[in-house]
Amino acid sequence: MKFCTALCNRHDMTPTYFLDSFLCFVCCLAISGSPLLSAQETKTERPWLDKSAPLDQRVDSLLAEMALEEKVGQLTQSNGIGGEATGNTKNLVADSALYELIRSGQLGSILNEINVTTVNEFQRLAVEESRLGIPLIIGRDVIHGFRTIFPLPLGQAATWNPEMVEQACAIAAREARSAGVGWTFAPMVDIARDPRWGRIAESFGEDPYLASSLSAASVRGYQGDDLSNSDSIAACVKHFAGYGAAEGGRDYNATMISPSTMRNVYLPPFQAAVDAGVATLMCGFHDVNGIPMSVHKQLLSNVLRGEWGFEGFVVSDWDSIFETIEHGSSKDERAAALAAAQAGVNMEMSSPCYRKNLTELVTSGQVSETTVDELVKPILRVKFQLGLFEQPYTEPDAAKILLSQEHLDAARKVARQSVVMLKNESSVLPLDKTILKKIAIIGPLADAKRDQLGTWIPDGKEADSQTPLAAIRESAKNNEIEVLYASGLVDDLDRSTQGFAEAVATAEQADIVVLIVGERANISGEARSRATLDLPGAQNELVSTLAKVGKPIILIVQAGRPLTIGKQIEAVDAVLYSFHAGTMAGPALADLLWGIESPSGKLPVTFPKSVGQIPLYYNHVNTGRPPRPYDFAKDKRVDDDFDVELGYNSNYIDVGPYPLFPFGYGLSYSTFTYGDVELSATKLRSGEILAVRVPVSNSGKVAADEIVQLYVRDLVGSLTRPVRELKGFRRIQLEPGETSVVEFALPVSDLGFFNNDEERVLEPGEYEIFVGGSSLAPKVGTLEIVE
Ligand code: BGC
């Protein structure tokens, strides 16, 4: 390779490397338009480096130069040397071999390496020492923030605020790119209807419409307008498809999903990401109806690429190609590589099936080289789009932006909107600073720094976390309110009641108790399924013991999933439910307690009363024997309350069929009044749009946000249809006394659905329309679809 010789002739990691590079860059640019090569070489020997050439032409010209082994190399991803290897195969290669693999052009990507010096050294080997100089793409799980941690995705979903989710992802991208990360394995958009499944924490909840809207928002946030921007990273929508349906909520378990359910429930958030231009997609570990997703040709090739026109690349999950052997779907690594390649998986994460077998599979004629070419092309395309050929290196000092005040402020805002108020008897909240003299803060999570952050935060730091105890202390200071503290339990799993006496004594001295309980961060997330959903340890006993003291209790629950806390809710005066809310969890909760902002989150997932009711989700189909209609205000049974007179209906005789809290539910410090809803038509045809207009007023005393929700029900269908389906939502801000008219434009085509022949149909007939502040919204009219 010929370098610019005017100012420098080397591109290695000397102490003056960046200065040299900069001078060289300017010089080369002046000469040729490429920082690394002369103009003539750019155009002739390496035409793919010509930035002005069309993308496909750049890809094709590079591909034409690649040897088969180099192509297979692009399909191969290895763990970095800083990351932890898990799973069955440990990792593709030993650390020492990694360098050689890169140098020989036989590695396309690295994950879990965020040491900037190491990342730059890897890139140098790839760009300057490998034959064709193809840069690596560096991947990392940036799931809900990089260093500034935002609420768990489930908490972000509780905001029902796509703009805010987009902003959170953009901040995560900016921070990650500054550390050399070009690609995140997010968003996870698996529909999750089972809170036993630990990965519900990483999801946007149970509803395809809400999840689709947040899926697209996340992709926009991570990727920005242009992947080559210095603050954009490639997104990876995962885990295609249906992973959340794991039987029994047990992680990695098999799924049985009918064709119509796959299309109507599990696929829409993936399609939304593809429509938003997502660069990559990850297939799941699980099998769907007997076929592991890593070899699922129908979904990966026919649907994803054929029907949806996805042009990015598919990465396997960690070892998931290899694990098709354990599934009993592939006989050995060679068969696994063959099946995955034929299904359309472009890159293998961690395990070595492609690297060890794909070259031979081509030379023996079992896989055509054209198939390999088609797998390589989208990977090269994304690398070109990221601008890696022009700028493979990361400036080591760019990390200055981590945890900037702007990022912390944004995290605090998202955290505030992610909290859902489930109860506020006698308006005990917000706390009144003018009356209170002493507050008791009690509970194992009140000062648990790490647990505020939640699962999947490889780059989050415990030290950055601001706990509720610290934040309440800080905010009480100016008003001379005394804050007392007793944890009651050593941690959330503690079963000993030894600390209860101190907790009771602390409560007795105070005017009010703020009791902070829940799940630690690492009992939700991957491989963290639970068979029970009670507060762990002796936390239930702590709640009931403190309830006997007779002081008002505000219960704050921090968890990665819905918990079965009906009895605990009965025992206290107010409840704020917070999915682990991130670095700024404490300040955000303090803001809500003091009424600086009203709680405004709404549940993105149904809360069951009991584990035995699961799966329990609002958009279920009806049975021929539905239970008596749901009356949320009266339905107070928690458990052990047998009613054998319910009749031969679809019921549970002990807890009833209905949830503790329905999807879309959440209270505010204010109240909202919905006026008469106007529908623009009572009859429409395919292609037309229904306008739904509703005046919503803030009838309370404080400014607050409401999330206005629109649901429909298709009364008669060729398949049984859900009793309700979300079709629109809007977050609005209202001052006291203010009214806003919310307008939804509902295209009639949105009322169509997929049948079991996987055809999308729009069926004539009656559709009920519901508008309100939760999935219990009242019926406001009927629309007839005519042919
Ligand atoms: C998870 C993925 C993750 C990958 C890489 C796997 O265990 O299922 O969601 O992106 O590891 O860390």
From TrEMBL:
Keywords attached to this entry: Glycosidase, Hydrolase, Signal
Residue ranges of domain Fibronectin type III-like in the record: 706-775
Enzyme class: hydrolase
GO terms of molecular function: beta-glucosidase activity
One Pfam assignment: Fn3-like
Highest taxon of the lineage: Bacteria
BP GO annotations: glucan catabolic process
UniProt catalytic activity: Hydrolysis of terminal, non-reducing beta-D-glucosyl residues with release of beta-D-glucose
PROSITE patterns reported for this sequence: GLYCOSYL_HYDROL_F3
Enzyme Commission designation: 3.2.1.21
NCBIfam families, sorted: PRK15098.1 (NF011678)
Similarity remark: Belongs to the glycosyl hydrolase 3 family.
Name of this chain's protein: beta-glucosidase
Organism listed in the record: Bythopirellula polymerisocia
